[in-house]
Design a protein that fits this description.
By secondary structure, the protein is mainly α. It has helices at 2-6, 20-23, 54-63, 66-74. It has one domain (2-74). The protein starts with a helix and ends in a 7-residue tail after the last helix.
Length: 81
């Protein structure tokens, strides 16, 4: 985001809609074609150390849960069935 804000040589930025908040009100967010879809995965994987950490494994389970999907959706992520 800093590079986008400070480099006048950048003509375009492909960014996910939830980043619009980070860019601020002076940046335009548009979708050129309402039929165009970009699929982006949200992966999570514990480290070797994390595999031994109960809280880390609980967090991984939470991220994969229906409850977490509500959080993802709130920030404009869509579930792909």
């Amino acid at each position: 985001v800093d590079e986008w804000n400070n480099n006048p040589n950048i003509d375009a930025l492909i960014i996910w809609s939830h980043w619009a908040k980070a860019l601020g009100d002076d940046k335009a967010l548009f979708i050129k074609d309402k039929n165009a879809v970009i699929y982006r995965a949200a992966e999570i994987a514990p480290t070797k150390k994390g595999l031994e950490n109960k809280k880390a494994l609980e967090f991984v389970d939470f991220i994969k849960s229906k409850e977490a999907q509500k959080v993802w959706k709130k920030y404009t992520w869509k579930e792909v069935k």
